[in-house]
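To the team - S-adenosylmethionine complex, inputs and output below.
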Amino acid sequence: MPPSEAEIIEEQIHFSNVVATFEQYAPYSLAANNRRRKDLYTLPQADQALLADIGWKDKLVDIDKAIMANAAFVKQMVSNPEIFLNADLSALAEGNDGHDHNGSNTGFGHENSHSHSTSHSHCQPNHPNSPKPINPNKRYRPTDFDMDKLRSTLKQFVRDWSEEGKGERDSCYKPMIDALLDHFSGVSEEQRSNIRVLVPGAGLGRLAYEIAHLGFACQGNEFSHYMLLASYFILNRTEKINEHTIYPYVHSLSNMPDRSALLRPIMLPDALPSDLPEGSDFSLVAGDFEEIYGAEENNDRDHESQVGMWDAVLTCFFVDTAKNVINYLRVIHRILKPGGVWINLGPLLWHWENNTTNDPSIELDVEEVKTLCRKIGFQLSNERTIDTTYTNNTQAMLGYVYHTEFWTATKISDN
Ligand SMILES: C[S@@+](CC[C@H](N)C(=O)[O-])C[C@H]1O[C@@H](n2cnc3c(N)ncnc32)[C@H](O)[C@@H]1O
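Output:
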């Protein structure tokens, strides 16, 4: 079903609100830091003097500077948002010289309303309220919810595109890539370009990039505008390694062992996104996974049927974004070729649990999900638990470890 006019308008309003959030990062974040200055002046003179002795005000100045550096980076991502509006976003990862980066035809997917119940979410939930109508005379005022998603995007850069994130990537992406290489060990490096790999919920695209870097044809899929703006920027507008410096930890002073942990600069990217094999096929498709890949036959004017089109699907911290995971399992199964493989790693932090928008949410445990996989026609192997973090600040006094489930699921029958 093509989107209705109302849905297209809602989508565009949401996108322009996301752009407004990026643009207003500096005043919003500086105001939050200014609150600390104001609070300082409410203290007794003696306490103010003691804080002056330990350089508290200087620290606030350093935070301001870090915010301004972040703001310069954030602004670059929305310096040309027209490329997204009304655009056919089929190939977000643009071709680099000699590289074919074409994706299938999609537009922006529709982000669904949803709020999240936990503060240590491994993912950004989508907007909780319907977008306010655009009033040309009045600028959208980002909420803390919007800003939180932008701040999470900065941390997502650390996970995907910094040396600092290597440990996290090694524990998540490496076992998945190893399983992929293992499954296709009979395919020579030269022939890998014939193997089509899909990465739904691709985030900032590093896993998809690594797969393309190995010579596979790889497509990422993502529907968050925050992620799409950020991944488009890093994948297509980066010229050199460590071109950017951001300060992703300056937004909260809680659980910091010292000043350097708070003000730690992170350099990006640690790999050059354009560094891909000659003629490689790497694309990032914008939109909702179920809408884009879910069509059963070629009777959807907007989305070509993807039935039996993929050799492998890799999901990292993704399956729990489903309202009804059975549908995700069915879509993954349907789009795989017979004998195709689905490699999964992630927790079950059901994103729609406790949503305030009356969306359905079916929250299953691992055993239930695995039983459903078998019923739908997968054979599971390689099952194990892998401990890993998600956008963790390695120097903070608080960290969450996920005991994620890993499996390789081979499509054995059509059900
Ligand atoms: C927890 S994040 C994981 C990102 C990435 N795989 C990683 O490991 O860093 C889940 C991602 O899935 C995306 N996502 C959630 N539901 C989606 C959907 N229905 N279609 C496409 N992307 C979706 C979110 O926007 C988010 O970027």
